[in-house]
Amino acid sequence: MITSSKLSRVAVAVALSVGLSTAAMAQETSSAIRGNITGPQGNPAPGTVVTVKHVPTGAIKTVTTNSSGQFSLSGLRVGGPYEITLDSDTFDDTKVSDVYLTLGEPLDFNYALAAESDIEVIEISASAMSVSMFGQMGPSASFDLQRLENAPAINRNITDIIRIDPRVYVDETSGDANPVQCVGKSNRFNSLTVDGVKMNDSFGLGSNGYPTVRMPFSYDAIDQVTVEIAPFDVQYSGFTGCNINAVTKSGTNEIHGGFFYDYGSNDLQGDSLEGDDVVAPDYSDKRYGFTLGVPLLKDTLFGFVSYEKYEGKSLFTRGALGSGAINEVFLRQQDLDEIVRIANEKYQYDPGPVPTSMDEEDEKLLVKLDWNINENHRLSYTYNYNDGYFINTSDGDANEFELENHLYEVGAELNSHVVSLYSDWTDKFSTELRVSRLELDNRQLSLENSTGQVGGITFGEMQINVVEPVSGERTTVYIGGDDSRQANDLNYDVDGLILRGYYATDNGHDLTFGYEREALNVFNVFVQHTETEIRFGSIEAFEAGLPGAIYYNNAPSGNPEDAAADWGYETHAAYIQDQFNFNDDLTLKVGLRYDWYTSSDRPTENAEFVAEYGFSNSANLDGEGLIQPRIGFNYYLNDSTELHGGLGLFSGGNPNVWLSNNFSNNNVLQFGQRGRNFGYTDGSRSLFDDDIVWKGVEDGAPAGPGYGIPGELYDAVAAGQGANFEINYLDPSFDIPSELKFAFGMTHETEEGYFVQADLLVSQTRDQAIVLRGDLEQVGTNADGYPIYDSVRMPSFVLTNSDEDAMSYTVSFGVSKDWDNGISLIAGYAYNHAEDIQPMTSSVAFSNYQNRAFFDPQEQVASLSDYNIEHRLTASLTYTVELFDGFPTTFGAFGMIQSGKPFSRTYPRSDDNGTDVNDIYNFNPYLDSNNVLPPGYERNGEDGSWWNKVDLRITQQLPGLMDGHRASAFVVFDNFTNFLNDDWGIAERVPFNTADFDTSNPETRRGDASLWEVRVGVEYSF
Length: 1022
Description:
Layout: E1 31-38, E2 49-54, E3 59-64, E4 70-76, E5 79-87, E6 93-101, E7 106-108, E8 111-112, E9 121-125, E10 140-143, H1 145-150, H2 159-162, E11 168-170, E12 180-182, E13 191-194, E14 197-198, E15 222-228, E16 243-248, E17 256-265, E18 272-273, E19 276-277, E20 284-297, E21 301-315, E22 318-319, E23 327-328, H3 333-346, E24 357-374, E25 377-392, E26 400-402, E27 408-424, E28 429-446, E29 461-467, E30 474-479, E31 488-504, E32 509-526, E33 533-536, H4 539-544, E34 549-554, E35 565-581, E36 586-598, H5 607-613, E37 625-638, E38 641-650, H6 656-664, E39 671-674, E40 694-695, E41 709-710, H7 711-718, E42 727-730, E43 738-749, E44 755-766, E45 769-773, E46 776-781, E47 787-791, E48 796-801, E49 807-818, E50 823-833, E51 835-836, H8 845-850, E52 863-864, E53 871-884, E54 887-898, E55 904-906, E56 947-958, E57 966-974, H9 976-980, E58 988-989, E59 994-996, E60 1004-1005, H10 1007-1010, E61 1013-1021
Parallel strand pairs: 1-7, 1-8, 6-9, 13-16, 22-23, 26-30, 29-33, 42-48, 55-59
Antiparallel strand pairs: 1-4, 2-3, 2-5, 5-6, 10-15, 11-12, 13-14, 15-16, 17-20, 17-61, 18-19, 20-21, 21-24, 24-25, 25-27, 27-28, 28-31, 29-30, 31-32, 32-35, 33-34, 34-39, 35-36, 36-37, 37-38, 38-43, 40-41, 43-44, 44-49, 45-48, 46-47, 49-50, 50-53, 51-52, 53-54, 54-56, 56-57, 57-61, 58-60
């Protein structure tokens, strides 16, 4: 029998809901079962033998309840089904079947045995028991295999799934990157783990959160995914936004697998937006792959393989006025043609055509082995490989236009290995040992680079400023090799070690303790302008060879690899935690975690910096540490309602590229020169003058602008002379940034079977990482209250901590329900108000400093985050019906209604008289964009337009070739809303979150996110 008390809650198949699941452990790859076994009167049943069998693999674990009737088992595979057998000398034996476990989520198996009778074994199917959503402490969301298969995941990315949670915003207006922004935080502050290995962008270059250009593992390899926003478990680390944790499938005693193929093209895409005809580039792409799980040795050794390949096109939807492109810029075709003519005739250079589509590929392989060594020990090994690339724009703002050779390849090759050993030493003590290694080779190669080697570009970057006469809008046209990819190479590796122990005491305390170590080693070459960047103020200046600016940087040796940042550090963590039942209704989790850094690598010291600043620029994180206390609770108010919450300190997610800048930009390894230092930009000499000596010209290239470097600039850099960029350094008093999170929530099950949840999350940033100028001092204030600055030392940018804290809060509601007629619904709403001191949008210190709105460039003011989405309503609906007898049809839909991204009203970069807005400060702190707030205006004080859309997947099951096989065909609509009406589903954004204060309509339509798209495909499984 199962009593109606709390002991009857057996969470055997946790339903998916928005935030309606218990917290999963960081870097966790398994699950656990803990509980109380009692007699029929509620008295403890000590000595009961609990046997847990994983039916697909035959793996068995056995434990005996203690004197209080309690037991605990860890290191269990996720999913199922499991059989749990209770063997008692006093009461009836019981077997519970069809039990399923959720990733990292301890199953509270509390069971009351029946009095002894003539029945040999009482057998119960878990499917007949009530599903439980209870037991959580912090806000989270879990997604199982069924949800993954039925969702309209047109990108085959976990972002297509986790967006169901309204607290998780996936920015679909950012092309294919789809960055994940949790509760108003930057995607850089998230962490992703797969089978226990961190798969987040450890360096911080990308915008998609992955180390690779796409999700580094196959969508079909995923078994479960969880998103943790505020978990109060000491095993969590490496994030302040959210932790995304995925575990992959495994082999079983049965051979199982399948394959898929899907297809898309411009013919399966819309051709109009809001009544405007749009011309999509011609393209077609395809994806295909397979999975296979096999028993290599029954009940003992299992293998699983997943492979996926993508062959497609990088699309470019920008064009000149009147071109019919999806995104037109303020540039006349005749002006563009004139630039191309001059480039060919005067500079002997073909800049390439207007880009429309170019080949791209991606290939993934995952191999997994699971070995049941014996009943007490299990070993798992996962190998993951991914290599892919796409072609990207470098300067793709609304007022910029690139010709094809200015594009560049973004690619990465990843190899990762993880070995996990789960061991039960006694009924009370178990351990988990994990060793991992990840190697990444990141590629950023300009299409102008024909050799594939660092520094292999033949023709440097040129920028031509063009004014459209009717609107007066300015557009910069780019030709040649992008300045930031003229010498750019990144390789890093991460070695990880995790050793954890779990001990269950006789008085009901579950102890967790452990040590972790992660070692990062980085080799990063980033030297801009090694082949020059030359700017022209007009087409006429371009034809005459009269530049407004020339930039050249390099190592004195002429080999940019000599200016590489070669560095690394180790992070360590030690923690201990106790989870126990304070009474029958209250469960507490109390823990303490300590993280600390060690490193012997320091930036090269700059003697001039030391003389002017009085301290060294060689500071690192060695010896820095942070204590992170955490406490969580769960309280059963009654049989249908629980309260939960907690308080904890978290840290992590700060991109390592911010530290790498200090190793690269120290004015010792590389030097820079400007054309103005040698009279090249005052109009007195043309780049076509015969007296210019061009150096550094590639073999076979003509000696001239773009192909070579003016001799004076080249010789000065070779002699170690030049200002370079502003030096970057780490504040010697830098503290580890952290975030204090408080959560409180309620879960309730109605009599009709609805699960309803409400959550409040409040967080406070501490010591947020920001970038300031290190050389500026305020010397006065003007009449409008703007500070007046003077540069009193060597120009510099310092990575430091903010003295101000920022507060954020999120209120969310969720509801879920499964009906017997085949309908399943998840819906949620989140109100979000997130603040930060600086948005820190870039990988470069200079860009982090300028890409924000401010009244004072040195200010530290908590303002609304660039990533905040104030209102977000989401719904996921699936419906299965047999339109054809024996062959179900499944409809899966995702819909969202959300408010727009905030933006700031600022002064234009310069007024009609050409006055620079930065003159307000009596000193131009190297700011290149419209970022100065008028008096009385706030950063992100304006609201963008709302966006709503519905995505749809229709799957029709078809006959398989034999029993147990299943075939299906499917169609996926991205933005089905726009498919129904081209005025619907339109996304609009303000570029870079700033707009001139007197512009009436600063938003631009994001065509790629607005236009409907369809993919069709087939699947076969066995």
